[in-house]
Amino acid sequence: MIVWVNGAFGVGKTSTVRELLELIPGSTVFDPESVGEYLRQELPPEELATVHDYQDLPAWRRLVPEAAAALLAQVSGTLIAPMTLLRQDYRDEIFGALAARRIPVHHVLLHAEETILRKRIEADEVDRQARQWRLDHVDAYEQARGWLATDAVTVDTAELTPRQAAERIEAIVRSGSARCRIVQDVVADRDTLAAAVLFFDEQDRVLLVDPVYKPGWEFPGGVVEDGEAPTRAAVREVAEELGLTLDPAGLRLLVTDWEPHRGPRSGGMRLVFDGGRLTAAQRAELTLPAAELRAWCFAGESEWTGLLPENKRRRLAASLRARASGQPLYLEAGGSPADG
Asked: Is it the case that residue 49 has pLDDT exceeding 80?
């Protein structure tokens, strides 16, 4: 397993983890920052110039779970990762990839109020550039506190020594209260067939869901199982994800989209069905599985363009055109085959 010790830059993660190593037998420190240092050495300068932080590099977010899995295969016991992770979508990407590898993550947040945190950073014996870096990120930590407080178990370090904070973390890990509830969405090693269902409200806004195991928002739906009809898969996924009961005969095909491989995820055929409008009563009964979905929302075009990745934006736009015309569309990579 991995104990991910999160918190603001300068809160005391390194000193606390040093103590935690003595409290968790057979534990090993895994510092994701070392992956960033590797990329700084290997990537061309023009690539590095596109980001201000190595966490913004997709390669870093892909390599961290790979490196952790490789290290766990080499050493037995627990990995302790002292790493500031303030973006929820990056958390979803990394923790989701670890869950897909059947690696449980215990997420603990070391916290100190802003005035205390700034005093600690000012008193820390580091060079001026490192001190300023930490101070510059205090505001980002405060902005992330909302989701961090929900996702991680907080240890307030205001009155604690590093040893005492480590003892708190050890007890939390032993209790299991910090273990992330996250679906083990195993990445397929071959092309898949998937079915999604679009639902609408009275304003024709589309319903989107926010997965906890990958970044970005998504349509309700999932992979069609072997021997399963796509409409049956759509009905099953909607029941599992939203708690809605559908009649497969009531689904209308909008789009068939061939999706190429993107990053570690497989490609394949993606079917999009029209599930119709949800009444106020149906919306009130929506139930999300906590280990899979964080939230749902109805989004108009001005909103879903900022929530969905490009391939899904194109697929949704085509689905809306098909819904308006009454004619289903065939796409490749989100566009007309002629576009390729």
From this structure: yes
Question: What does the pLDDT average to over 109-116?
Answer: 91
C-alpha–C-alpha distance, residues 243 and 240, integer Å: 6
Three-state secondary structure string covering the chain: CEEEEEECCCCCHHHHHHHHHHHCCCCEECCCHHHHHHHHHHCCHHHHCCCCCHHHCHHHHHHHHHHHHHHHHHCCCCEEEECCCCCHHHHHHHHHHHHHCCCCEEEEEEECCHHHHHHHHHHCCCCHHHHHHHHHCHHHHHHHHHHHHHHCEEEECCCCCHHHHHHHHHHHHHHCCCECCCCCCCCCCCCEEEEEEEEECCCCCEEEEEECCCCCCECCEEECCCCCCHHHHHHHHHHHHHCCCCCHHHCEEEEEEEECCECCECCEEEEEEEEEECCHHHHHCCCCCCCCEEEEEEECHHHHHHHCCHHHHHHHHHHHHHHHHCCCEEEECCECHHHC
pLDDT exceeds cutoff 70 at 340:
no
Residue 128 — pLDDT band, cuts 50, 70, 90?
Answer: confident
Q: Tell me, what's the pLDDT at 14?
A: 92
22 and 171, same domain (yes or no): yes
Of 145, 175, 205, which marks where a domain is finished? Answer: 175
Q: How many domains does the chain have?
A: 2
Q: Do 119 and 146 belong together in one domain?
A: yes
Q: How far is CA 78 from CA 84, 163, 200, 258, in A?
A: 19, 18, 45, 41
Sign of torsion over alpha carbons 99, 101, 103, 109: negative
259-271 confidence digits (pLDDT tens): 887 766 678 999 9
Q: Which domain holds residue 139?
A: 2-175
> Residue 110 falls within a domain, yes or no?
yes
